[in-house]
Amino acid sequence: MEASDTPGSGDDLSGDGLSGSAGDVTGRDGGAVASSGLGSPDPAPVAREPEAEPPVEGATLAAALEAILMVVDEPVAEVTLAQVLERPTAEVAAALRALSEEYTAAGRGFDLREVAGGWRFYTRAECAALVERFIRDGQQARLTQAALETLAVVAYRQPVSRARVAAVRGVSSDGVMRTLVARGLVEEAGTDPESQAVLYRTTSYFLERLGLRSLDELPELAPFLPDDVEILEEQK
User: Fold this and answer.
1) Which GO terms describe its biological process (predicted)?
2) Do 106 and 155 share a structural domain?
């Protein structure tokens, strides 16, 4: 009896009775039988993204440093910033230097410098002429006539109370006095022992703005006063 060319049910098609790849083994009907795991490459490791910088009360370390340094009047030491932000001093120092380099590379109009043992924002030297022009010509807020009168009374009668200033001027000077205090030209100087009223005097900034070394250099008032000033003073 001749052998049939058609494979029978017991014939082996692939030599081992199974066909398919080394990894996925399939039966004769094409269904998956098992996965050997042999010959298949291991999956490539997934690169982990660098962890984000932990926030400092809702802000990044760089943002926190910028916010603090924006309001300081003098350089702040690295250790002080580290204590406030509760971060290692080395980390704060590195962040400060990174910010300084970033501002320089970006050509910003301000600079973050380490001076006198601390860090502070400064305008860049290339912009000095523009800043000077702005301060000299653009933002010289002039005092009103009422403010000048009040300042003159304080300068020549200090220490003086607001009530006394109002008596000399003939009008209330409360609002004007607050403006002069806010400008740094006038400051409190204790209280009157009798009336307990707050007394005011001029500040060193007042002398600086007028180019005076002391109050003794104030010009004499006599040439500018009316002839009947003594009578007017007695009537008050």
Assistant:
1) cell division; chromosome separation
2) no
Shared domain for 165 and 219, answered yes or no, is: yes
Query: How far apart, in whole angstroms, are the C-alpha atoms of residue 113 and residue 103?
Result: 11
Q: Which two tokens stand for residue 158?
A: 């200090």
Mean pLDDT value of segment 138-162: 84
Report the number of distinct structural domains present in the chain: 2
The domain that holds 200 is classified in CATH as 1.10.10.10
| Mean pLDDT score across all residues of the chain | 76
Separation of CA 63 from chain center? 8
Residue in the block written with tokens 């220490």: 159
How confident is the model at residue 120, as a pLDDT?
92
Taking the CA of residue 19 as centre, how many other CA atoms within 13 Å lie in the half-sphere pointing to its CB?
A: 8
**Same domain, yes or no, for 186 and 226?**
yes
Predicted model pTM: 0.41
**What is the pairing mode between strands 32-35 and 186-191?**
unpaired
Determine contact, residues 107/92, Cβ cutoff 8 Å: no
